[in-house]
Write a structure and sequence with these properties.
alpha/beta; globular
Length: 396
């Protein structure tokens, strides 16, 4: 097991705090491993193993459905004394009404509770009702490039060469921890994708026109890093002689978000200082999903770079927006409390590099501005704007 220290660092201050800790992210992104890391941490702190209760509620590991009452009775039955018990509960969204059972366990027992899930049903209104003010959500993503390097543990291959593998193969832990060829790796990712689509979306929402749903998903994945709307998807499908309502597309996009397949990046008006509701971008949970569905295509590297930078900023705790500055667009505006960064992403700096820098130079505040690129020869500093290689940005 390769330790993912960033998640342990987020969990350590929350140990023994009487709130429910929710780890949420796409299937197979490593949530179960993080729970095991936590279990090892608790044992190292001297917690008796009999006071650490681990359960997996996924369809693969037990017969479901299980009622919330049955779940509560089972967990309560593990409590043998008045000492604190630590409950590590995996894929809990499969249990209907789980939040009621967890609320009762939290209130009535000397407990510290951690749950994971791959559907944002974990963050639904029911949680707000039963656990209001008593839970914290920790997003879990696929491996960062730093984590990818740790999983590979390759001391001989240059980091920038390993970045090429990260771009092509992505950050699902199962792929990164194995020496899989490209075809096999993409087959594994397709299986993960199909599992999410079938278990977390198609069956859950009883989608009847699976072919149409699949076409919408593929449109979104194919157009990672491009602005589009539900209307533009409907018009595109209409050009293919397919008819679908805009409302259905809105539903599909929402369900994909709730299963953590895609993430919505809204536009931010830098002059009006407001979030805009039109022409958003979507990024896919891991870049390998795009290549697994469509095959590797060198011409798509620029958009995949955007995808990678977006999630790196999210991992670092930033809220991320597309920046709109009059008629100009900034790839990313990253905001965290009083901190802000402006970032452009490009595969290569053009000969007329001012074209890439101009949008950033028009922003008159003093927050950091940078261009992230794969162009080794362009890296440096131009008029206060840092030009940095993607590998160095991800390894910072």
């Amino acid at each position: 097991m390769v330790i993912r220290p960033d998640y342990l660092e987020k969990l350590r201050p929350l140990i023994d705090v009487k709130i429910v800790k929710i780890l949420a992210g796409i299937r197979r992104c490593g949530k179960s491993t993080i729970l095991e890391m936590l279990r090892q941490e608790l044992l190292a702190r001297g917690v008796d193993e009999s006071h650490i209760v681990v359960r997996n509620y996924s369809f693969e590991d037990r017969d479901l459905p299980l009622s919330s009452k049955e779940m509560y009775e089972e967990l309560k039955g593990e409590i043998k004394d008045r000492k604190k018990y630590y409950f590590l509960l995996d894929e809990l969204q499969e249990v209907s009404g789980w939040e009621k059972a967890i609320n009762t366990l939290l209130e009535n027992c000397n407990s510290d509770i951690y749950v994971t899930g791959s559907n944002s049903k974990l963050m639904s209104s029911e949680i707000s009702t039963f656990l209001s003010g008593r839970y914290v959500t920790i997003p879990v993503y696929t491996l960062s490039f730093k984590e990818f390097l740790a999983f590979k543990n390759d001391q001989t291959t240059p980091v920038k060469e390993q970045l090429k593998d990260y771009i092509r193969l992505g950050g699902f832990p199962l792929v990164a921890s194995s020496n899989l060829g490209e075809d096999v790796a993409y087959s594994v990712v397709r299986d993960i994708y199909n599992s999410v689509v079938n278990n977390d979306i198609t069956k859950r929402h009883q989608i009847s026109n699976i072919d149409m749903f699949d076409r919408v998903v593929r449109f979104v994945v194919e157009n990672v890093g491009k602005t589009f709307s539900a209307n533009s998807i409907a018009n595109f499908l209409k050009s293919e002689k397919r008819s679908i309502s805009v409302e259905s597309i809105y539903n599909y996009l929402e369900w994909l978000e709730k299963a953590f397949v895609i993430y919505r990046c809204k536009r931010y008006d830098l002059k009006g200082k407001s979030v805009l509701k039109t022409q958003e971008k979507f990024y896919v949970a891991d870049q390998s999903i795009k290549y697994a569905l469509y095959g590797f295509n060198p011409t798509s590297i620029a958009s995949v770079m955007e995808n990678i930078v977006y999630f790196e900023l999210k991992r670092r705790g930033f809220d991320v927006y597309i920046g709109k500055n009059a008629s100009k667009e900034i790839d990313f505006v990253a905001v965290k409390r009083d901190e802000r960064q402006y970032i452009q992403v490009c595969r290569e700096m053009p000969k007329e590099s001012d074209r890439e820098l101009a949008n950033l130079m028009e922003i008159k505040d003093n927050y950091p501005k940078m261009v992230v690129t794969l162009d080794d020869y362009a890296c440096g500093n131009v008029n206060g704007i840092k030009i940095i290689h993607l590998a160095d940005f991800l390894n910072a």
